[in-house]
C-alpha cells in the first residue's frame, strides 16, 4: 500500500452483506486488540518472550475465540444504536439484526482450542444477548459494554492475581472502541437505507432465522 493509501476513504456500506462483513471485522478487532494489548502491557519487558510460549499462545487463542461472541453482541448493539432511530419497523430490524449476526458467527467452524459443546453454548448465549437488544430502548453507545465488560475482562490470558485493578481500563477500552465503530458505520453508510434493507431481508426470509 502506498503512503497515500492511508488517506483514502473506506468503501461505503450499502448492503446487508457489507454490513455483515463490517460486523465481522469490527468484532474480531474488538475481541483481539484488547486481549493482545492488555497481555503485552501486563508482560512488560517480557512480552516478546511470553508471546513465543506455546502454552500462552494457546491461552490467547482460547481467549479471543471466547471473546468473539461477546464482541459480536456489543457491536450488534452499536449497530442497533445507529439504525433503530432511523426505522419505522424496530421489531423487524431487531429480528433481522439477530439473524445477520448469528450468520456471521456461523461463518466459523468450531475453533481448535474449544470443544463443540462450548462453541454451541456460546452461540446460544449470543442468541440470547441479541434477543435482548430490542426489548429496551436504544442505549447510548458508551453504556453498551456495561453488561459484557466483566465477562470480557475475565477472559484475559493473564492470571487473575496479576490483573490488579485493571478492570476500569478494559471497560474504557470497550467504550471508546465501540464509539469509534458506531461512528465509522454512520460515516460509511446510509443508515436509513441499511435499516430498510435489513427489514426487507427479514420479510424475504419469512421471519425464519
What's the arrangement of secondary structure elements?
Elements: H1 16-43, H2 47-50, H3 54-83, H4 90-105, H5 116-133, H6 149-154, H7 167-188, H8 191-205
Helix pairs in contact: 1-3, 1-4, 1-7, 3-4, 3-5, 3-7, 4-5, 4-8
- The H-and-E topology, N to C, reads as HHHHHHHH
Give the termini separation: 40 Å
Q: Which spans of ≥5 residues are poorly predicted at pLDDT below 50?
A: 1-7, 203-209
**Main sheet attributes: strand count, strand direction, barrel closure:** none
* Overall mean confidence score, pLDDT: 85
Percent in strands: under 5%
Category from helices, strands and their pairing:
mainly alpha
Structure, explained:
The protein is mainly α and 209 residues long. It has one domain (14-205). 67% of the residues lie in helices and 0% in strands. It contains 8 helices and no strands. It has helices spanning 16-43, 47-50, 54-83, 90-105, 116-133, 149-154, 167-188, 191-205. α1 (16-43) runs antiparallel to α7 (167-188), α3 packs antiparallel against α4 (90-105) and α4 (90-105) crosses α8 (191-205). It is globular, with a radius of gyration of 18 Å. The protein starts with 15 loop residues before the first helix and ends with a helix. 34% of the residues are buried. The model is unreliable at 1-7 and 203-209 (pLDDT under 50).
Amino acid at each position: 500500500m502506498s503512503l497515500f493509501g492511508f488517506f483514502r476513504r473506506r468503501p461505503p456500506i450499502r448492503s446487508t452483506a457489507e454490513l455483515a462483513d463490517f460486523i465481522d471485522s469490527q468484532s474480531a478487532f474488538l475481541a483481539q486488540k484488547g486481549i493482545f494489548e492488555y497481555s503485552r502491557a501486563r508482560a512488560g519487558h517480557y512480552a516478546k518472550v511470553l508471546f513465543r510460549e506455546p502454552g500462552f499462545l494457546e491461552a490467547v487463542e482460547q481467549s479471543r475465540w471466547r471473546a468473539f461472541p461477546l464482541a459480536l453482541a456489543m457491536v450488534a448493539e452499536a449497530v442497533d444504536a445507529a439504525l433503530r432511530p432511523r426505522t419505522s419497523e424496530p421489531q423487524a430490524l431487531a429480528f433481522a439484526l439477530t439473524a445477520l449476526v448469528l450468520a456471521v458467527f456461523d461463518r466459523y467452524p468450531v475453533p481448535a482450542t474449544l470443544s463443540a459443546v462450548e462453541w454451541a453454548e456460546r452461540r446460544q448465549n449470543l442468541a440470547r444477548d441479541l434477543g435482548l437488544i430490542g426489548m429496551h430502548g436504544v442505549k447510548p453507545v458508551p453504556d453498551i459494554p456495561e453488561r459484557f465488560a466483566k465477562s470480557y475482562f475475565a477472559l484475559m490470558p493473564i492470571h487473575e492475581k496479576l490483573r490488579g485493578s485493571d478492570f476500569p481500563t478494559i471497560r474504557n477500552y470497550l467504550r471508546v472502541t465501540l464509539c469509534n465503530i458506531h461512528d465509522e458505520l454512520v460515516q460509511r453508510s446510509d443508515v436509513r437505507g441499511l435499516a430498510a434493507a435489513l427489514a426487507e431481508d427479514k420479510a424475504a426470509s419469512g421471519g425464519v432465522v
